[in-house]
Write a structure and sequence with these properties.
The chain contains 11 helices and 9 strands. With 260 residues, the chain is α/β, with parallel strands linked by helices. The protein has 2 domains: 182 residues, Rossmann fold (3-Layer(aba) Sandwich); 60 residues, Helicase, Ruva Protein, domain 3. The strands form 2 sheets. It has a 7-stranded mixed β-sheet. The termini are far apart.
Length: 260
Amino acid sequence: MTNVRPKKHLGQHFLDDMQVADDIVNAMTQHGGYNEIFEIGPGMGVLTTRLMKKEGIKTTVVEIDSESVVYLENEVGLPKEQIIEGDFLKLDIDKIAPHPVGLIGNFPYNISTQIYFKILEHKDQITECVGMIQKEVAQRIATKKGGRTSGILTILVQAFFDVEYLFTVPPDVFIPPPKVESAVISLKRNDRKELPCKQETFFKVVKQAFSTRRKTLRNALKPYGLPAEMLAEPLFNKRAEELSVEDFIDLTLRIEETRK
């Protein structure tokens, strides 16, 4: 069978550097004690072939491209029952993975942000993730408190995962080369079982605070109708990007208190 054609509408850029592939797979540590890895968008299986060599680990791939599905079964030799043909974003994770799993992949850049929101939805099942995404998004997710690239995903992901920026990947190791640099980041589930505030409120406060990122919290959080004496505090002179996860948790607790 001939090679699989990268398809622009699926955001496919196939990795063509074996050392980078080794580095991505070797970054998986079985954090959380899982024995199954889900790979998103395996394409021609450059990561898959390496994952299949891991002892005691089952490799299950999720691939939306039917041409790749045929290639993975016939050329890579992955058993049919370990291939899920479909859209990862639409999968019922609770049904297919009621146990802890690791997640890996050269994620399609057009849905990479949505993949991380999906991970958050299933944070107690996905205990580790090593993903290659566009560098800009990787920096945003991995940035520390006060970073200019800080955003909604920074806070939401870091509330439940320890995040590490592993390495940058140049465009020329892909077929076809993307127009931007890529990066590999690692997520490992932290010890926080649940938030001391309501998770739904926390998510809403973070999203509202970053909705007008050039404004101070005093202006960004106006829809909450907070008391004037509270808004007069120095905290509300800050912008969302200046706050840490713990700052947002404390802020959410205080907002909840005003609504009692």
